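Possible regression after last week's pipeline update?

I re-ran a chain I had predicted before the update to compare outputs. Posting the input and the new output here so someone can diff against the archived version. Not blocking, just want to make sure nothing changed silently.
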Amino acid sequence: MILEKIANRNVVTIPEGATMEMAAKAMRERHVGCVVVVEEKGTRKIPVGMVTDRDIVVSTSAFGISPNTVYVRDVMSATLVTARKSDSFNHILMLMKEHGVKRIPIVDSEGVLAGIITTHEMMRVLSDELNVLVQVTDRQHQVESDRRPKLG
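New output (post-update):
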């Protein structure tokens, strides 16, 4: 399965110089739990970090610090885990497990932001596939019943 097919292409982005308050407002307006921090090079957006709703809580609110005094660049993930559009589903699962992250930005061959994949999308795909597997078993029982009538 190619990630490009299931990745969310409507990624909420924010520049490094934005405040955590701006990040929080962007998340609220778009109903998401994270923003991808980008460096803009013309029309190209290069992901350089990520800030989650949890980052806002543990870096500002937990200390009584106003989120309008803290910058995204000071809180964003130090090392951003990204994946290629052509990476496999299993590869992404392994990246998430290895790095302990639930969201991974997807980039093209030039490192430009192309989407984001989250555990939510991955669970939806797995759920759909498990449902098909149940249907296979149900169908197999029906085929067996049709081929071999009851005895006696």
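Follow-up from reviewer: compared with the archived run. The chain has a mean pLDDT of 91. Marking as no regression found.
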